[in-house]
């Protein structure tokens, strides 16, 4: 079987982690770099990612995560926090990065910046928040697939109290909101769900080929 398919078949939403096993610093750095390289609309990456290994913080988050044991048993908890609102600074900071990285004069990027601002700044605050959260989910997908390549288990989690996360992590004053959480580590032998057959729609149901 092709490794791409094999790794995705191996991956599942881990329900019970082995709390004695930790993701190495080397592998954590690989996961974070894979996340950093994720695609995002216009390349703006309108989110911030918190990587939590501190057990005390994980204990605080567990009660506001429906009491799920993944929060405290996993090696790390990754919180994807989307920017709740933004102005011209989101585009301007990105263009400064482009200018520096590609050695392009900033003046040469003005037209592109104006184009992005014309599309984004007219959005309502609610639409901006939805859009930035969607970008965070793209990054989530990337890190999950990278983890599967490294045989690191993951569990994406929406069963959380977002506002409580924001309070515990001090996100609101940073113009951030918890979009989604990912726990990473290594599956416990006691997690029976690892032996379940993967249930997905058939190709005939899921895909329409327009040729």
Automatic annotation (TrEMBL):
Matches recorded under Pfam families: Nitroreductase
Q: Where is the Nitroreductase domain?
A: 10-186
Source organism: Flagellimonas eckloniae
Q: Which cofactor does it need?
A: FMN
Which keywords accompany this UniProt record?
Answer: Flavoprotein, FMN, NADP, Oxidoreductase
Protein name according to UniProt: Nitroreductase
Q: CDD domains in the record, alphabetically?
A: NfsB-like
Q: What Gene3D superfamilies does the entry give? A: NADH Oxidase
Q: What molecular function does GO assign, one term? A: oxidoreductase activity
| Lineage of the organism | Bacteria, Pseudomonadati, Bacteroidota, Flavobacteriia, Flavobacteriales
| Family stated for the protein in its record | Belongs to the nitroreductase family.
């Amino acid at each position: 079987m092709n490794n791409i398919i094999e790794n995705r078949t191996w991956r599942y939403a881990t329900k019970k982690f082995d709390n004695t096993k930790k993701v190495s610093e080397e592998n954590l750095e690989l996961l974070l770099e894979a996340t950093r390289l994720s695609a995002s609309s216009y390349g703006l990456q309108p989110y911030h990612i918190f990587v939590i290994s501190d057990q005390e913080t994980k204990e605080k988050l567990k009660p506001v995560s429906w009491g799920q044991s993944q929060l405290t048993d996993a090696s790390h908890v990754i919180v994807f926090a989307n920017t709740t609102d933004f102005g011209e600074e989101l585009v301007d900071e990105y263009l400064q990065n482009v200018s520096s990285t590609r050695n392009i004069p900033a003046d040469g990027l003005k037209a592109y910046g104006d184009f992005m601002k014309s599309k984004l700044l007219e959005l309502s605050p609610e639409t901006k928040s939805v859009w930035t959260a969607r970008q965070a989910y793209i990054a989530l997908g990337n890190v999950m697939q990278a983890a599967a390549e490294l045989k690191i288990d993951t569990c994406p989690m929406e069963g959380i109290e977002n506002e409580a996360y924001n309070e515990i992590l001090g996100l609101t004053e940073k113009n951030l909101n918890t979009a989604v959480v990912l726990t990473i580590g290594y599956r416990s032998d006691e997690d029976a769900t690892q032996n379940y057959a993967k249930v997905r729609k058939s190709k005939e149901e899921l895909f329409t080929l327009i040729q």
